[in-house]
Design goal:
Shape: globular
CATH architecture of the largest domain: 3-Layer(aba) Sandwich
Number of domains: 2
Strand content: 5-15%
Distance between the termini: 25 Å
CATH superfamily of the largest domain: P-loop containing nucleotide triphosphate hydrolases
Number of strands: 8
Length: 309
């Protein structure tokens, strides 16, 4: 079965892309596949911004995928996502439905667009035995001798560092520029749209949404996860809300500092997202930007017009 063109909706955090994707799916009979690196985890709803109610359109839940598929405390990697995305896309298309990809995680979006063919690499027991006697600096040096890591957080966690080396050893070379450009050209068949907002609007939305989520019980979510056996260190691994709220819940920082530091961190994260999207454009992936100050229904209608046009 040949793969059909997808619709991609990307944008920074708090841009309202989930609701737009749901409305578009409802109007086209499509299904949404998430491209978010943290929304894969069960029980991590408010902190990751799943906004599950946004998937309900006129009382009906729009089909959505790759949400709530991993246990908190586990490491769900881009390699897992590639496998799950390909399977899910094939299932949606086998039903004759339009695939709508929605998210803000740059590497996940590029993987969905087919820019990378990441190998399935089983653990290497012999290498892991040798790695146990190696220092972190030796492991980092080995990784950089094999590849230029996409995700530098691999360097901060020993288990992820060892896993990154296993994968790099199995496929030591990045795609050549020629291969990468060919994949970018192939991705042009997809409609990639982006929700654009003035920086001050994004900042205001982020701060307002953070306060709303705290009011809706985000701290309770953190406490519940800790009570189920997820350690503070495991929660903080997921960054942003989970880092700062865990520090607050465990008494490491006060409420005012938690709110201020977290608010600043989310603003910085939003800027990094936009930097990634601009990088996608520079590499040759066309993004059709839409004014995010419109209502979600108007944005969905605008994307719908692009499809029919």
């Amino acid at each position: 079965m040949s793969e059909k063109p997808m619709i991609v909706i990307l944008g920074p955090t708090a841009s309202g892309k989930t609701r737009v994707a749901a409305l578009l799916a409802a109007s086209t009979g499509g299904e949404v596949i998430s491209a978010d690196s943290r929304q894969v985890y069960r029980g991590m709803d408010i902190g990751t911004g799943k906004d599950l109610n946004d998937y309900i359109v006129e009382g009906v839940r729009v089909p959505s995928h790759l949400l709530d598929i991993a246990e908190p405390g586990t490491a769900y990697t881009i390699y897992h996502y590639q496998h799950d995305f390909r399977r899910t896309r094939a299932e949606v298309e086998s039903r004759g439905k339009q695939v709508i990809v929605c998210g803000g995680s740059g590497m996940y979006l590029e993987t969905a667009l087919g820019l990378y063919a990441l190998p399935e690499v089983p653990p290497d027991p012999d290498f892991r035995a040798r790695a146990a006697g190696m220092s972190r600096d030796e492991l980092v040096s080995m990784l950089f001798s094999l590849t230029q890591p996409h995700n530098t957080t691999d360097l901060d966690d020993r288990e992820r560092l060892v896993r990154a080396i296993e994968i790099a050893k199995a496929a030591p070379h990045e795609p050549t520029e020629q291969v990468l450009q060919q994949r970018i050209r192939e991705s042009e068949k997809h409609l990639v749209t982006g929700i654009s907002l003035p920086r001050e609007v994004v900042r205001e939305r982020i701060t307002r949404r953070l306060q709303t989520r705290l009011n809706e019980g985000m701290l309770n979510e953190i406490e519940n996860l800790l009570n189920t056996g997820v350690t503070p260190e495991e929660l903080m691994y997921y960054g942003l809300e989970y880092r700062y709220l865990t520090l607050y819940v465990t008494g490491k920082i006060g409420y005012d500092r938690m709110f201020s530091d977290l608010n600043t961190a989310i603003h910085q994260f939003s800027k990094r997202q936009m930097t990634w999207f601009r990088r996608m454009e520079k590499r040759g992936i066309p993004i059709r930007w839409i004014d995010g100050r419109q209502s979600p229904s108007d944005i969905a209608s605008e994307i719908g017009a692009m499809i029919s046009g």
